[in-house]
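> forwarded from #structure-qc
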């Protein structure tokens, strides 16, 4: 089968590799669509970062020397069901996979937080295959059924949608509350969709790029500001009440100014939820937390969020069609996928790759 194999920065090749053979407890999934994520882009640009370089990943035992098949945001259909598979999976079932790989032994895993595992890994990053290939051999426990009426294209975006659903849940957000989203990249846009679907009274966006602001507007954001032109905490108070602020803020920019504006935009006892991964530690004015009794929380990946995601997609509460900016065959992955995203990132939310070449699905 054809697979996109990552061998280091700027080195991804479409290679002919062995099609995986069915194993007990696994289902062989024929990949329909796989999204390219910012994480993949970072690996391509300046990796290996999360991809295990010289030291093999402690759970998968794989490293860069083996060649890593990328792709963790994908949908497909089951082609073969292995022995001893729990659940009623059968050939032809439409599925998405949950990409978190965990050790099942550490404190986090034992306490139901495998998304915070000490040996955390990911399908399509840590080895054992990925979605930028014609087939993926999936442990049955990673599978979730795609509801009827939801296209496999939309379903391919259920992974980043799960990240947003998890972040909103972790923030303690309640229906009717107001929210500020700092950064309108793909995750900022997914967060906006989730907040609107869950009944936010106001979703305010802070994003310097006008192209990205227009994507957030498409996602349903109520108010859009540029941190380069607007004093964000002041604009927030014009919208919420002169001494009030938002109930929750989401840091999805990974930038100190955005973090600071997010904290200052919170009401008393408000919560800032950080979804960004930081390359350098930011400075935080702790007195802004102390005297207003505000909280900062973190959220990583997802855990038990896929049922909510599948229900939101299946019921039509969330539609993601307008987030697909291009669909490309696997052969065009580097030129029309990675290079396009590096050069024209702002014009895209999601580029989907179709490894089988059958774009009728
Ligand atoms: Zn991702
Ligand atoms: Zn663990």
């Amino acid at each position: 089968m054809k697979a996109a194999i990552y061998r280091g920065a700027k080195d991804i090749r479409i290679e002919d590799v062995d099609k995986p053979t069915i194993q007990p407890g696994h289902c062989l999934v024929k990949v329909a669509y796989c999204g390219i994520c910012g994480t993949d882009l970072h690996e391509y640009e300046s990796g290996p970062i999360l991809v295990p370089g010289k030291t093999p990943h402690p759970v998968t035992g794989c490293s860069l020397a083996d060649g890593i098949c990328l792709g963790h945001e994908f949908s497909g259909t089951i082609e073969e069901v292995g022995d001893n598979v729990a659940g009623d999976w059968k050939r032809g079932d439409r599925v998405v996979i949950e990409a978190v790989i965990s050790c099942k032994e550490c404190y986090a895993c034992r306490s139901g937080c495998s998304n915070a595992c000490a040996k955390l890994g990911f399908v399509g990053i840590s080895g054992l295959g990925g979605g930028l290939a014609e087939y993926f051999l999936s442990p049955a426990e990673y599978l979730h059924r795609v509801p009827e009426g939801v296209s496999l294209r939309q379903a391919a975006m259920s992974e980043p949608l799960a990240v947003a659903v998890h972040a909103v849940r972790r923030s303690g957000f309640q229906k009717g509350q107001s929210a500020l989203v700092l950064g309108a990249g793909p995750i900022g846009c997914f967060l906006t969709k989730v907040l609107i679907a869950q009944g936010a009274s106001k979703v305010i966006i802070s994003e310097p790029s006008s192209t990205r602001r227009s994507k957030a507007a498409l996602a349903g954001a109520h108010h859009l500001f540029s941190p380069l032109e607007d004093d964000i905490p002041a604009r927030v108070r014009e919208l919420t009440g002169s001494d009030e602020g938002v109930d929750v803020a989401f840091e999805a920019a990974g930038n100190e100014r955005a973090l600071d504006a997010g904290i200052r935009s919170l009401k008393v006892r408000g919560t800032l939820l950080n979804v960004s991964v930081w390359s350098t530690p930011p400075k935080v004015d702790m007195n802004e937390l102390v005297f207003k009794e505000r909280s900062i929380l973190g959220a990583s990946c997802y855990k038990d969020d896929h049922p909510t995601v599948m229900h939101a997609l299946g019921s039509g509460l969330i539609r993601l069609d307008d987030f697909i900016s291009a669909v490309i065959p696997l052969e065009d992955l580097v030129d029309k996928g990675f290079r396009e995203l590096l050069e024209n990132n702002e014009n895209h939310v999601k580029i989907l790759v179709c490894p089988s070449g059958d774009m009728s699905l």
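QC bot note: The first strand starts at residue 2 and ends at 8. The radius of gyration is 20 Å.
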